[in-house]
């Protein structure tokens, strides 16, 4: 696959990934690393003058990948916080349930 096509494919993939992230859906990035590696290998094979022509596009792609990485980290961190909150909620719920049960058994019987 030519470098130009790889650039386009990766850029489209990043756009799709951003759309999915905005919806709060987890996404599978399988294969993305291979595409980026193939692009880097293709870029290295290009003559210097061609690489210079594509330098801005490559830099833009790098910026997009970096930004996507930060967005994925933010989603991961938010998910981790939600998991911690759920664990705390479960712990509190169990404690309240135990307290309510012990309140019923600790009350003196009325005659």
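^ Assign residues to that structure.
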């Amino acid at each position: 696959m030519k470098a130009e096509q790889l650039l386009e494919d990766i850029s489209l993939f990043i756009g799709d990934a951003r759309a999915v992230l905005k919806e709060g859906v987890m996404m599978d990035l399988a294969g993305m690393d291979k595409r980026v590696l193939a692009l880097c290998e293709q870029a290295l094979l290009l003559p210097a003058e061609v690489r210079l022509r594509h330098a801005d596009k490559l830099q833009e792609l790098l910026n997009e990948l970096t930004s996507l990485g930060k967005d994925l980290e933010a989603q991961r961190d938010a998910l981790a916080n939600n998991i911690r909150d759920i664990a705390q909620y479960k712990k509190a719920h169990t404690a309240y349930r135990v307290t309510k049960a012990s309140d019923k058994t600790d009350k003196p019987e009325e005659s």
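Residues 3-104 form one domain.
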